[in-house]
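Forwarding these from the shared drive since the link keeps breaking.
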Amino acid sequence: MAQTQAQHTIAGIALSNEKPTTLTYEELYAWVIWQFPRPQNGGLIGAVHPPMPQHGWIPAIIFTGNKKQIEIHAHLNEQYPTPESAADYFHSQVHSQAANK
């Protein structure tokens, strides 16, 4: 896959710089997929970690059932030290959207 300015690559996976990137479980076979059962946006809020020891965690929505896809929020261009802190990104978004209403 040719990389554009709208994309960057982490561990061989092209990810959007502008919006979340949706990939299948199979495409992320070498990545660590962390999740905990907190439903949001039709999936589980969680995080993914590429197979690179020094890389941080990236917020993600894990879709289960027949979908078996992961929405990776690498467009945020931020890494988190733990999967919990990456997942907290979604909690802060929910609270900030509620405060703006």
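-- next protein --
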Amino acid sequence: MKPFTSQFTNPFTQSLMANVTDENLHAFVTDWDILEGLVVGIFRNKTATAADVQTYAQVRTELQTHLTQWQNALYPHWQGKKIGGQAAQSDPFAALIAPSHAGEFVGNLRLMQTLPAAREALNSLIIKIAK
């Protein structure tokens, strides 16, 4: 099993964030990167380790707080994004922090398919803020 290390998982997002001074957005993006890495790692490894469970519990709590602040700003950016080939019908960010346990990502193709919509929306928001 390849462990996930906390860092920007998306180089494009990292380059976009170089122009952003909002510390709250930096915290949200950092936590989102951790979540994204966990989801991918758990899905690929077909198991959630004890460390995954602990990390998810911590990052989920942080993201629930961050999402309260950013949900309205993110809303127009995920509209029309594709999840599994279909236009998103609900908030991909909320969907990805909805599971109560990291083990719920094991074999969960729908949540894996939700990651790109969330990342595209996040990058779109960053571009808007960085202008």
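The helical segments are 11-17, 23-45, 50-78, 92-97, 109-130. Confidence is low (pLDDT under 50) at residues 2-7.

- D.
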